[in-house]
Request: fold
Amino acid sequence: MSHRLSRRQILHLATASAAGFGLTACGGGGSGAGSAGADGDSGPITVWSWTTAAEALRGVVPSFERDNPGIKVDVQDLGNPAIWDKITVGLAAGGKGLGDVLHIGVDYLPGYMEKFPQGLADLSKLGADKHKDAFVEGLWPTVIGKDRAVHALPWEVNPLGLFYRSDYFEKADVDPASITSWDDLIAAGPKIRAATGAQLIGLDKPGTTQDMDFFQNLMQLQGAFYFDHEGKVTLASPEAIQALTVIKRINDAGLMADTAGTGTGKRLLSQGKLATAPYPAWAIEYLATKFPAQSGKWRVMQPPAAVPGGKRSAIVNSTYLTVSATSPRRKAAWRFIEYALTKPAEINRMFASGGVFPALKAAYEDPKFSAPNPFYGGQKVLRSFVDSLASGSDATNFTGDYSRALKLASDAQSQVLVKGADPAEALKAAAKQLAQQTGRQQAA
Reply:
């Protein structure tokens, strides 16, 4: 999904920019916003989204308007990252100027609910709680605010996988079934490199783009992140140290390519210089679209565990639809969200047009989720991700201080990769700084 790749690379700049507009301001920036809204159930509503996701939402509008006469929907593509600044500025201004329906990523939603507790509508009052069990495990805690009410519904979910060049594994005589942990893959790495000249993975070593997805994924495989569910700092946790230690071992073994520089990672993939790509489900479409000449050469497996015997499934990101508390037509906005995200036919129509992997469990009954994919040698790649979701995953608490954590974690990773720093010491210093900057406690 191309919009996801670009978002992944520019999100960090957007996060820092949004923080400057108010995410790091004192709590309650949206106080009083709810009193300005109303529960109108008819009339025009606006939906804010971006690129292919916005186009997917437009595909729902005709059937929704047919089934809900009296409501007219205008889906607006605000672009990415511009949408984050507009939402953040609107919330900081008490909800002024916001769209009725907002498309928000998991890296922003917890922070918005934390910093602007009155900014997003209480959807529990509109019946959202009845959908709790409709979505994959691990997403529902993210939509619950401190008031214990539901403030959004899950739309997109991205389970983690490991895409790999099956032709390279075969040439190196490495059985993919033998790879159950990153220990196994690191051990096989020299054979793959000797047989194909390809490195295992690519990372921006100096951190010019804060390339932290892999580090975060390794933590998420262990049920951890920069913060725990109470918001305490866990950047120096054993799980974080293990994640950065795995990265250091890959680099020390000479199995890591440096992707610093615009377009470097894409170029290395195009040239066949990377044997694996630890990407979530959005990459199914991305690899097939961007590298058609490599058709039949890629496969996907469950991600190797961060520790031998550990979990091999993780939800690494997700997106949601929510209603602005200042919307004058909150009921109408909610009806659109409920229609788009809880009806399998509608959400699968969006999946077909925009590549947004649905969070609705009932969607997976569609035959497309068990169909062989020619680009992946006939492998049922969608089914592999569905099976991964079935094993459950922990919710990730990004908090309103994600941008600060990201910067400090990126600095620590660069110290390890460029200067040979010890992972535990680098993360201990980063965690101390994060606690000082945010006023949060460090977890024991």
Remarks:
- The longest strand covers residues 315-323.
- The first helix runs from residue 2 to 23.
- Residues 1-35 have pLDDT under 50 and may be disordered.
- The chain is about 40% helix and 10% strand.
